[in-house]
Design brief:
Length: about 625
């Protein structure tokens, strides 16, 4: 796992500032502390920070083909590289190393842009072909590895694994994108393809971008893959469960190739436990596993991790984290560069820190909830869809919209009396309904949160528009499959994978995600929806398939997740910090917010009248971003 950086002159072939490229590269030292490399020629410069995993003695980057006309800087792992190497050698290509990186340059020579369609793994790379005068950027299918890019006013294109590398360039415009701010306060992160800056974009998952000297405009990235949701041929439940296990086992197996210590995260949840069970069946040696426990039993699930560790006799390493572990708040902002409001980033950082003491590579269970319908919100969404079904939207929207406006808001009351929320749900279409379910701050609160001047800047944009764009391209109309597709396009890369990438790379730890093996994702997407969610049980088939491998206490309990007591912190140890930061001059000077509303949110929460912790956490993280932006200003 590594960090990549590059500068490309889109207009001409002007000399590249090597010292500046090296400075950009150095900001990502944490991603690859083993080695660094830089290549410059007229009009293009590529740089790399290396975390050595395979072929430790060679494979330094940037890496060239035989005649040094093609060079790549690459972050990731291509798990089918042995098969591709053999195929390319038979086609006449000469290899100098035994690493997966060299496969990329020869695959480009053989198949051009279609090379990415042959890769099985996680990757982001920039490749320069001198003969074709082409810079080629690509990102893996699910967005496991990140890639930012920006076209400067002078015609230089920058790209890097993290935004901080682009920010090391003094000419990068840093004005914030109003639509990204709206997205952030709806989702808790800035979804692809936007970044927090107008001038910077993220290359979306499963996209590629080709650039040539002499272009005046930046072309649009092009997709090379999508989750298909093509129905599989009929198969009975037992056969489907057997095939699911076989496919997961194979996905785990190819991710156990490494020349450094390898292990797994073990949270005690279904997904990480299933991965460990597969690893144990594939290895003659005990699997290295790690987990964290919490001092507060309300948040601690370590006993479930211990159940799995004991069953498979893993070499288990566990450490207790204080439930008031908020000392990382300032560190988080440095890691994520953009505003990022998922508070589980705190324990994720700690478990990565713990794992790195024992291993360099860790397998995780990420992706199971999106693939196999594990989130409780999927059940709630389908229940709402059943209520919406009998009447067309044209009738529901005016009727229930009017009732919702007349009925008083009663968040304090028992759920049965909260008819306003029910009326609002019935007045929405499926995408808008799901959006309201996943939003940190719903439409009504965001409208009040922002200042009138900022609302004018939005020009009518609403964060739900992003989900509508994805829904319009979705290959499925099934209610469950559609919202899974939306999460695979937004929440998975924007939140889950971003969180894990930055937390792991902060400790030079590589994390591999077998449940996001793209052939496995394709196959699972074609399963009948009732094999994913049945009778209120998410991951139905997966749990049935894992019954021979895991105890029912793991499979059929209500999972708590990696949560932290933010609401209590804001009324206790973080009480003053919250008031100082969220109600302070930096937020007021931004002119983005209605400061009177911020005062009401803080006061109501701290006096115990309402729980505004999700909104307040997102505001606190945004203030931290403003502070870092101010400190980094040239």
């Amino acid at each position: 796992m590594c960090g990549i950086t590059g500068i490309f002159d889109l207009r001409e072939r002007r000399p590249i500032n090597r010292a500046l490229l090296e400075a950009m590269n150095q900001t990502q030292f944490h991603r690859g502390p083993d080695e660094g490399g830089v290549h410059c020629e007229p009009g293009v410069g590529l740089a790399h920070r290396r975390l050595s995993i395979i072929d430790l003695s060679s494979g330094q980057q940037p890496l060239f083909n035989e005649d040094e006309t093609v060079v790549v800087t690459y972050n990731g792992e291509i798990y089918n590289f042995p098969e591709l190497t053999q195929e390319l050698q038979q086609a006449g290509h000469q290899f100098r190393t035994h690493c997966d990186t060299e496969v990329i340059v020869h695959a480009w020579e053989e198949w051009g842009e279609a090379c990415v369609e042959r890769f099985r793994g996680m990757f982001a790379f920039g490749l320069w072909d001198r003969n074709r005068q082409t810079l080629f950027l690509a990102r893996d299918r699910l967005g496991i590895k990140p890639l930012y890019y920006s076209l400067l006013p002078d015609g230089h294109l920058l790209f890097a694994s993290e935004l901080k590398a682009l920010m090391a360039h003094p000419d990068l415009p840093r004005d914030m994108d109003p639509q990204a701010i709206e997205d952030y306060f709806a989702y808790g992160y800035v979804p692809e393809p936007r970044s927090i800056f107008r001038s910077v974009q993220k290359l979306p998952p499963a996209h590629r971008l080709s650039l040539r000297h002499g272009q005046r405009d930046l072309p649009a990235p092009r997709a090379y893959w999508d989750v298909p949701f093509n129905s599989l041929p009929p198969l009975d439940e037992a056969a489907a469960a057997e095939e699911l296990v076989a496919r997961l086992r194979e996905a785990v197996k190819i991710r156990q190739i490494a020349e450094v210590p390898l292990g797994a995260f073990l949270s005690g949840g279904v997904d990480s436990s299933a991965v460990v069970a597969m690893m144990a069946g594939l290895s003659p040696d005990p699997v290295q596993t790690c987990s964290i426990s919490f001092a507060d039993p309300a948040y601690d699930e370590s006993r479930y991790a211990q159940l799995v560790a004991q069953r498979y006799q893993t070499d288990h390493y566990q450490e207790q984290v204080d439930s008031d572990d908020f000392a990382l708040l300032d560190r988080l902002g440095t890691l994520y560069d953009e505003p990022f409001a998922d508070s589980s980033a705190l324990p994720t950082y700690r478990v990565c820190e713990l794992a790195r003491r024992k291993v360099v590579v860790a397998l995780s269970g990420d992706g199971g909830d999106e693939n196999l319908a594990g989130y409780r919100r999927y059940r709630h969404h389908l229940a709402e869809e059943r209520l919406r079904g009998p009447l067309p939207l044209g009738m529901r929207r005016p009727l229930f919209g009017a009732l919702a406006s007349l009925y008083p808001k009663a968040d304090w009351a028992p759920r049965v009396f909260r008819a306003k929320a029910t009326f609002q749900a019935l007045a929405r279409d499926a995408v808008e309904g799901y959006f309201q379910g996943v939003s940190i701050l719903r439409d009504e609160l965001r409208a009040k949160l922002f200042s009138p001047a900022f609302r004018r800047e939005l020009q009518g944009y609403n964060a739900v528009d992003l989900l509508r764009e994805h829904a319009a391209r979705a290959p499925t109309a099934d209610p469950l499959s559609l919202v899974q597709y939306l999460d695979l396009k937004t929440y998975l890369p924007g939140d889950i994978l971003t969180k894990v990438d930055r937390a792991s790379m902060a400790h030079a730890l590589e994390v591999r995600v077998p449940i996001l093996d793209h052939p496995l994702v394709e196959w699972i997407s074609g399963l009948p929806p009732d094999l994913k969610l049945r009778g209120g049980e998410g991951k139905y088939l997966f749990k049935k398939a894992m019954e021979p491998y895991l105890p029912n206490d793991i499979l059929y309990r209500r999972k708590k997740g990696f949560s932290v007591p933010v609401a209590e912190w804001f009324r206790g140890p973080l009480r003053e910090r919250l008031r100082i930061k969220v109600l302070g001059p930096r937020m007021a000077d931004s002119r983005l917010f209605d400061m009177d509303l911020l005062h009401r949110l803080v006061t109501q929460h701290q006096e115990g009248q309402r729980d505004h912790s999700p909104a307040l956490w997102s505001l606190l993280m945004f203030e931290g971003f403003l502070a870092r932006l101010e400190a980094a200003s040239p």
